[in-house]
């Protein structure tokens, strides 16, 4: 417990196993595979938000030297897995994934309408500017606030009684009326876009007519393999997806997007390998985003601070063709011991592309509202905000009426409060200045559900005593290979340098994509059980050797050797075991998944953030000057990479709270902030020292490694903590993100 920059000296963290290849440029990213005869593709996108294409004039583009094709709905191949086209074209019903180059209909501005394929990228870019598209325009709806009357219960929810997004009520939320103190407020989160440094990119290679390999930036090679196999009606094994290195992602790569389909179909049509890299501006309409969301919270308490009720309503935007659902209101059911809770979730379909999951999807959004409202309530009650949370601490899950598998949120609160110096904070808002700046402190809680999916791992001892571990998991940034190497090296007692972990290829053993903070809990467990099984096999083989292990003792593994007990000084090396048995390799593949414990316990990761801000009283500029972030995610597998993940979450939260905002010109239904000059994300100068603390106690109910997810809770609640600190500094409550200077002066 309580480790900051001091790693555990007796068990130090691993540095990233792939750090050297990444910083020396030896790691190959999706767009970097040198495939002979590679063609280059560039998308042409729509300039209207709704309507249809009446003509595509590609003569000029086709005349550009090097151009091989201009592909659009007019000449695109038929995708075998898609339904036959209708004549005349008809708008798809909600719930239908967008089909690229399918018909003449336009669903959003920035929709791919054609793709130019040329020998060089430059030729394709130039030719794309010469494709002339004419449209029949129809009036569009893109403005969230002006169209809120069109929101409703999602069709998916209407169809499914058991949907978690159904209206929910426990107790009698109307009892709120009688609360001693009551707050009611609306909170707005604007559209915010994924901005990984590496844009999405794909190289598609067909062999013959029925074998496809794609080097594609995504978060799940197995699911991409399945989706592509289905679309092209191929056996799964005929499709291979490679995504070994990924230059950042946090939700944008969870599904196969239209640009990927476009590249794969064009490569097939032209019978040539082909590369497509999205431009930064195309990232805004190609790979989803955190949806614009409006929330209303009514919350009340008795004079002593005990919650009397919470009503949490949320409406998020989606496209006209698909429903993207988020956990926006769900945390309000589980975080506090409140007997009366109601939640309602609605969707507003607009003429935009479909949103997607973005770090802490729904929870980061919902927790901004809930934890801001808790802060408002604390001030109204004249209670310390942390006191109010402790007073309503949920000792068991009030939603499912189950015990928590583990919950050290109280320890997180204590740790965070101590480290930030919470008790020295003067309660009165706008009461303290430092160097002429208004000084404020705020805090918020964090919670994220536990996701563990069936996962397989293969562990193979090599003749030289080195170990290869494999799973079709991913690394979108957190250092998956490093954590898995650590698990394998500990279980087998081999130096981490002798372990190789392979990921990011669909031919590897089945594993979930990297999402929902599920990788360590799921794949980490599989690696653990596979290495345990391999160890057992090795112990058994050692027992068959003439100078084998003496039986009876507790076997110990260390330095690539098995010892029959602590007192055994000699042991047998793994290499000798394989040599004696004349094996080049000894391998096992194991699967690990959840069991009955999921019905016996409620499982979450928990955490909290404490923030210090300085606000310039003249300009309204907010500087986050200190952050203390604490988490209880069970056992920490590799402290160094975990800490980096927590820091990344806070940085994302600073962006969400203070900067990120995709601005649309609604006359055209078009985003106008489509570069880093206008879509602001935190840079180094915006990021203060961030202190990270973990409780680091295994959750023994969760899985064999006692470790829960960390990626999402790292951001969940950060925006609220910052908004609460800004209120404390200035006395101004900003309920609409981002908190820009204009909202404070
Ligand atoms: Mo995450 S938003 O599940 O990559």
TrEMBL record:
Which GO MF terms are attached to this record? xanthine dehydrogenase activity
Aldehyde oxidase/xanthine dehydrogenase a/b hammerhead domain location is: 24-139
SMART domains the record matches: Ald_Xan_dh_C (SM01008)
Which species?
Answer: Dyadobacter fermentans
Oxidoreductase recorded as keyword = yes
Q: What is its EC number?
A: 1.17.1.4
Class of the enzyme per the UniProt entry, highest EC level: oxidoreductase
Q: Which domain of life is it from?
A: Bacteria
Asked if the keyword Oxidoreductase belongs to this entry, the reply reads yes
> What would be one Pfam family of this protein?
MoCoBD_2
Gene3D superfamilies of this UniProt entry?
Aldehyde oxidase/xanthine dehydrogenase, a/b hammerhead, Aldehyde oxidase/xanthine dehydrogenase, molybdopterin binding domain
This chain belongs to the protein called: Xanthine dehydrogenase YagR molybdenum-binding subunit
Per its UniProt record, what InterPro entries does this chain match? Ald_Oxase/Xan_DH_a/b, Ald_Oxase/Xan_DH_a/b_sf, Ald_Oxase/xanthine_DH-like, AldOxase/xan_DH_MoCoBD1, AldOxase/xan_DH_MoCoBD2, AldOxase/xan_DH_Mopterin-bd_sf
- Please provide the record's keywords in A-Z order: Oxidoreductase
